[in-house]
Structure formats: structure tokens, C-alpha cells
Please model this.
Amino acid sequence: MKKTKTRLCWLLPGLTVLGLDRIVKWVHVHRFGQEDYTKNTGMAFGMFQGNSFLILLLSLALVAGCLFLLRGSKPKGLAAVALSMIAGGALGNMIDRLTLGYVIDSFPFFDWFVFNVADVGVVAGAALCAFSLLFRPRDWSKA
Model:
């Protein structure tokens, strides 16, 4: 029972990010129309624009790395939440790339960039991961 409960605890944040991302993107496409979102063929800040295969490989490596750490290192608390959020966000954008060939971005940040829920999950997860590494190293120990 404890193993199942632990696994659910580290799966839930990632599944929440993934689920919210899919719902928000569906609403933007089906309720508001194409003019309400941006088709992003690159990564953050326009890097690797149009190079979907490389981005897919990087995303897959990110998800695999998070899952490896979750299963192998058995992080606890904030560390597990952070890795799960990163994996959930990366999966959300991977689904778009595989099914559409681009990522749907729908929230503008002034005139600087446009992002989505998956991006928020990855960035928030990375920030929590850094915080956990710096201030909660016990979350990363196996004992």
C-alpha cells in the first residue's frame, strides 16, 4: 500500500500539469479558434525553430531523465513534485509536437513571448528542483 501511495504522490503533480495543459489547449483550439493561439515550432525564446526532431529528442531525454530520477533516486517531498511537474509539462508539449507538428502557445507575456500550461509546469518544476537541491537536500537522499 505504501509503495502505491508514494508512486501516486509523485505522479499526481505531473498528471495535473499534463491534464490542465491538454484541457486549456483544447479550449483554445475548439472554443476560441485559431486566431487565439500561436503555433510554436521551436523551443523557448525561438531556439531550434523548425527543428522538431531535435526538440522531440531533447524532450524525450528530459522526460526519461525525470522518470529515471523518480524511480532510481526515489526523491521525496518537493524534489519528487518538481521532477513530476517537469515531466508532465514536457509530455504536454511532446504530444503537441507529435500530433500537430508544433506546440500551441496561448498566453502572451506582454510582447516578449507566448507560453502555455506545460511551459509553466516545466519552469515551475525547474525552480522547485533548484530550491530543493539548495535548501532541502534530504529530499534527494535514498535513506
Observations:
- The chain has a mean pLDDT of 88.
- The CA atoms of residues 41 and 102 lie 5 Å apart.
- The helical segments are 2-32, 52-72, 77-100, 117-135.
